Please model this.
Amino acid sequence: MIFSAVDNSAEPRATPLYAAAAGLCATNAWTSVNGWALARSYSDTVEEYEAALNDVAFVDLGPLCRYSVRGAEAGAFLARLTSCPATDVCVAESARGLIVNAEGFVVDCAETTRLSKDLFLLTTSVPVDRRLLVAARGFDVEISNVAGQVGALGLIGPKARDAAAAAGVDILAAEASAQGRVRGVELAVRPVAIGALTGIEVIFPAEDALVIFERVRGKTTAAPMGLDAMEILRIEGGVPRTGVDFVSADDARTQGDARSPDEIGLPHLAPPNRGWFNGRRAVKNAARARRRLVLLSLDCDAAPPGVSIRTRAGIAGVVTSAAFSPKLKRVLCFADLDRDAPLGDLEAVIGPDGSRVPARALESFEGRRAAAFRENL
Amino acid sequence: MSEAQFQNRKAAKIEGGFDALVIGATADAFAAAALMARAGLHVVLIETGERAQDKKEIAPGYYAIPGDPIAFALDQAVVDGLDLYRCGLSFAARRLETFVRFGDGATLTTTGDPELIEEAVAALCEADAGAFSAFLAQERKTARALTDWFSGGAAPAAPGREMLAASIDDVLSGRFADRRLTDYLRAEASLGAPARASEPYSYLSLLRRLSGEIAGLQGGVAAIAGGGRGLANALRRAAQTAGVSIRQTDRVKSVIVEWDKVAGVSFDDGGQLRAPIIVSALGARETFIDFVGRARLDIEFARILDFASPPIGSCRAHLALSGPLGDPLVGADLSRRFLLALAAQPLESGFLAARRGEVRPGVAELVFPSSLDAALAPHGCLTATILLHPVPYFSPDDEPRRAQIEQLARDALRAIAPEMSAGVVAVDIEAPVRAAPTTYEAIERRRLITDASGLEGYYFCGPEALIGAGVSLSAGRRAAERALRYFRTGGAS
Model:
């Protein structure tokens, strides 16, 4: 007998904002994201969703993976690792992109923010430490995983900037800088989006989490928002989630499980006509997509992931993630479909008795950008 | 900027109008350049570093020819395609006999023709002669089926992967009553190999050795007139005849990449040679990491290039001998190849010691170049070239290690010719050569390196594209074929 290499028994760790979030979480419904505890819902998911949609909501973004990349070649390094044009990004600007492997399959989504001339912040949804380590060979960069050392609070919604200004943390507007000291607290601020909703993210040292939290709560009307409401916004915006809607290429058991940027509906985030990035040649020379991730609306109240999507010819794919949209009053879901499945002839098999409901393809914010990109390519 | 610097800047030239550039001065580089030029391309070969000498005087009146004096495989398509015989390629001995000295002092003389091995083996062990001959015939047949794979073609459908993963010891275990026959095959397969005969995939080394065709004979051994330099000179002439222009330079600074395609090379003085096709015969790291840069390579591809080099290698020693050899058995015919084949245990110990950085006896391959070319030694005297394997890889400046290797060469010579009376006048040690990776690993690595860089128009035939030890020219031919396909499709990837 020898010790197992796997440790699944660990409790989720507390994010720097956990203590504050726990006090607000009336439902006590928690989940684990990347090993960090995150509230699924604070009080009512629909109210949280509507607060974000119409006003402003704050979210604990601590569970995202964050790396500081410092050095003379930090920009070139990130431009190689991700499809973000990091070398062209100015201080206080962020760029969205994908991490693609050499075969042209998506590992994860990535955002790079330039905090100063030689310092970048890389944000990913899953850990990519090993990939960073391998990629950094030969580059003059110093990389550190700062996920546990910093807290992150997102202000999302149409009034996010106003709220940030009221709380005195909108240094993006005040100083056109992504980092600075506000009333004794070191802050980094960057623009973020959840689905089609934009906002800003305030990143601060873990020990100052409660100071920032109190300032935002005291000076603004922002309501806390949990993961379930974020999922609704994400699906409405047409943004796929790594590990849910597609398997990271690093975790794919076979090449058939891995997905290209085109197959997950994000070809515009890894444009083959952009400057060099890892896997760009494979993306450029990729064969025709085998699958496609499509946003569907279903005329029903719920559709758990795994529900089959059929055409007249047979099963065309499965639902990968779904949420009930309070705005559209129907279920929205991502479905992983055969490339040639006709979108006008889809049905979801939702009941145990095989009952079917019509499934219609829906246009989304991200889908429109992908379509425009494909037209212009 | 000083006046001199300004003048230097003015001297930098950008030259274009070429179809292909070949970097390096190896046999494969010349083969690739000549094949492309014969196909109608305007090719420039950039010879980096100093040109190797044809001969080196190791003692007054004694000359050594650097490089491998004998060959096991020459790609027939290159020999025919470049008409190398017209360009000066000739064999001093086409079907070289091999004289094997075993650890217990017994000997075996195989004829130059593998078909006649049965008679030779019968002299050592009559009971095994038929089985040995049949085994060798079967292995040569298997090896023939793998020839294309070894030279860079597609993997064969058969034999299965389990068979390819076998060790030599597994395959030979219990096959012959006389273990010395096993020792002989083990020694043949171990020359230049990085792994012991008991390790997986070592059986492929034997098949690789048997697959080679030289002078129209599969599995044979031949001595090229002038040794490795003789072949190099023939290839140089073939390249020049085909219209390749050869430029000499200290070093290439970088490869110019425009978008995903190579566009030429740049030099330290700022000069450039521009062409849409580049073939590099230098090492993989130099070719990709130094010339192109990690920032333009896929992370996974760059990682392939970070492999650890084998800690062991082979070392060739040239010995000047005063007077006739003296050993009647060996001296009876010096125009043969001599092989020292130790038993399994000492050979295993030799490999383990070499990995630890110690020098111990292993396999030794001996030839007497002066018996093929009398001009290499004073009248009545001899030169000998002995290849020692395995030895710890060492820096050419490491004098204590060189002294150990010199002693090892003297001991190996004495082991092959115990009754030798000739004195050793001088010993010259060549720089060691790293052992080639195991055959299967080398094939996989070659596939990844030659296929996966993704840079259009950039082709590779450096050491990592070679399978096993020794020159074969296949890597150069494959690189030229790929480059020509690219050229004919108008640069489409």
